[in-house]
Amino acid sequence: LYREKIGALAEGETLRLKLLIHKDAHLHKAVAEIRKDDEQEVKRIFMTEKLQIALNEQITAELWSANLYLSMSFFLKREGFEGFSHWMRKQYQEEVKHATAIADYMTDRNAIPKIDKIDVVPQSWKSPLEAFEDAYKHERHVTQLIDLLVKTASDEKDNATQDFLWGFVREQVEEEATTLHIVEKMRKAGEAGLFFMDNQLGERN
Ligand code: MG
Asked: What share of the chain is helix, strand, coil (3-state, %, to 5)?
């Protein structure tokens, strides 16, 4: 009888133990699944270090562009072209908006926007034409920077950033077309035509 009782007890204990192990395995599986969900959540919110660095470099580049156009605005005003100067001042504001748009986007994604040291910009040009030619050349360079940024976002498998950057890709098409159009008009315009253009560009909102 004793032996039977001990046997039953042992059997009962084994069963309880088995039940515990079973529960534990279940728990482990559930915890692992929650962790996996968490990791995916983290991936969705946070962007990779590489992409953060690339976006921050773009913020600095946009601010350099802003300074370039502000410098052109100073030069053009000095030369007596109030309208061209006003146009460049507007362009300067646009570039600041590009920088803040990237920063705001990064903050939304729990990334950290940063401003690096901004290099000195040119301070004078031979003529308004040369300033606008430089503006066009610079916009072509910015297009390359944006294209590289899209590639980085794609390499880092960050769909949201790619989607965000398409707006900048479209913007660059406009920026290049606008500055080239002004350059071409300026090349055709004589002295009188230049002052006519100055009035026209002064109307930019
Ligand atoms: Mg820009």
From this structure: 85, 0, 15
Taking a C-beta distance cutoff of 8 angstroms, is the pair 113, 107 a contact? yes
Q: Are 131 and 75 in contact (CB under 8 A)?
A: yes
Q: Is the pLDDT of residue 43 over 60?
A: no
Q: Is the pLDDT score of 59 beyond 60?
A: yes
Separation of 63 CA from ligand 1 center, angstroms?
8
Q: What is the pLDDT of residue 3?
A: 57
Q: Give me ligand 1 centre to Cα 197, in Å.
A: 23
Which has more pLDDT, 85 or 25? 85
Kindly state the tokens that stand for 81: 């072209």
Q: Say how many Å lie between the CA of residue 122 and the centre of ligand 1.
A: 17
**Contact assessment for residue 161 and residue 47, using Cβ atoms and an 8 Å cutoff:** yes
The arithmetic mean of pLDDT across residues 144-156, rounded, is 98
Q: What is the pLDDT of residue 101?
A: 98
Instruction: Find the 18 Cα to ligand 1 centroid distance in Å.
Output: 66
CA of 136 to the centre of ligand 1 (A): 12
How many angstroms separate the alpha carbon of residue 65 from the centre of ligand 1?
A: 7
Q: Cα(173) to centroid of ligand 1, in Å?
A: 11
DSSP state of 156: T
pLDDT above 70 for 142? yes
